[in-house]
Fold this protein.
Amino acid sequence: MKRRNVSPEAITGKETSGDLLREKFPAYVGRNVREAFRLMKQAIEEDYFIFLTLSGAMTPAGMHHSCLQPLIENGFINCITTTGANIYHDVHRSIGFEVEEINPHHSDLDYRNEETVRIYDLGLTHEMLCETDKFLGRVLKTPAFQKSMTTPEFHSELGRAVAEHEEKSGISKPSLVSTCHRHGVPIFCGAPQDSSWFLEALQLSMLHEDFLFEVDVRRDVLQMAALQWLTQHQGKTAVWILGGGVPKNYTLQGEPTLSQVFGMDARGFDLDVQICVDVADNGALSPCNAGEGHTWGKTSADCVTTRSVYLRSDVTVILPILTHALMSELSPRPAKRLVDKLPEAEDFIKKEFKKIFSDPNKAIYSGY
């Protein structure tokens, strides 16, 4: 590794955010901030397919409005995996409600009595939750949802419905799901049943015998692996991991699905940027770095040696400045519209799978 002289110049106040990230973050966690910016910029400049994972309560905090949607609209993010909670809370503002800052040290007993729901220092009302449930219930009962769907298929249709509602209602800030729908960005959810929108679907299934919506988890896993197989054959792939959790593992498990289970020669992600507050020595999945992931086949050898960083920081602290720098220095690129490629990806991987398992010399499990 080329050694760099650590001698930053004094900050004048005239620097751009990119200047600060390159020159004023000289060591320790700051150095990892600088490296995260370098790798994210490299992924965009070299036209990687960029998979983003998003955990935590990021949509209540408005991180989708300030950071993610600008990146999506500029073609920088091509696939998202997130939690059902982020999707559920994404809808609040689209139906006319606001999320407010509240005192996290105030009595939670008082908050409960006044029907305020707290996400640390963010306040949501009981009315907001009920109206969101009603809105989602009306959407889920429409004909478009009366079938088995994968989570990206569900989110695409939900995005369509929310976009129509936003347009009719004159909502000035679109939701994450409607933005992804317009730009063809698939949204996966690794644990859909762990969300309020799924609870609404459960209620509808109990009330109406003709309610046919269900999540096809088998095809969901297949579609994630298929997209990674397809994009690896069309270019390089990067994963930007914001917060760890189920979204991180659900995205990364596409690689061992391909190599370990399907017997395919998958190389793993070519570039890895992780932003998470957790420490790595407790055996948890959220903070494990690209090297540990490589032992599972999730990241390539080149990724581990030259194109990965684990930035131990809160996403809400560092993502705004990273987004500002990327938006300031890079031109938009065409949307890759991976949601439109899901059928092609499924067909592609099924054909490759049959080729492998029809040859006993290549099949990883010859007993099959």
Remarks:
- Residues 159 and 178 are 4 Å apart (CA to CA).
- The domain at 17-357 is CATH 3.40.910.10 (Deoxyhypusine Synthase).
